[in-house]
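Propose amino acids for all 134 sites.
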């Protein structure tokens, strides 16, 4: 039906995948496999480590269809750490908590922020890729 109103727009569209080289994004959709070749009614996604292997996976939601889980199989597995912080009393999600880490010469820090866009639930686990530093 969308196509009848606007010939250049399709209701089912293929997924797109981009890879960063540190400076620019490069479209790698053609290399990404069969899931990226078909048209979907994909209108949302969730990112998380669904299989607990340290690689972030993607769950795509489809209007009127089943979700599509894209399991990340890229590269060799490295070490990682997943943290689920729990606050006390009124701040049970530990929003605002500051996480700092260091492994050898590498270090980092960030603050936990609210991760519930548009009223949807989101996993509160924070995943850190620490490569082969440990």
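Proposal:
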């Amino acid at each position: 039906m969308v196509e009848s109103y606007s010939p250049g727009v399709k209701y089912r569209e293929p997924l797109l995948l981009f890879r960063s080289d540190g400076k620019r994004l490069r479209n790698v959709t053609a290399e990404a496999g069969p899931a990226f070749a078909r048209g979907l009614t994909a209108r949302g996604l969730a990112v998380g480590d669904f299989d607990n292997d340290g690689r972030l996976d993607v769950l795509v939601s489809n209007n009127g269809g089943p979700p599509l889980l894209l399991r990340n199989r890229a590269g060799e597995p490295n070490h990682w750490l997943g943290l689920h912080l729990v606050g006390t009393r009124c701040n049970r999600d530990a929003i605002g908590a500051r996480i700092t880490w260091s492994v050898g010469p590498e270090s980092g820090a960030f603050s936990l922020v609210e991760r519930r866009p548009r009223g949807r639930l989101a996993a509160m686990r924070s995943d850190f890729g620490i490569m082969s530093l440990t």
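The chain has one helix and eleven strands. The mean pLDDT is 80.
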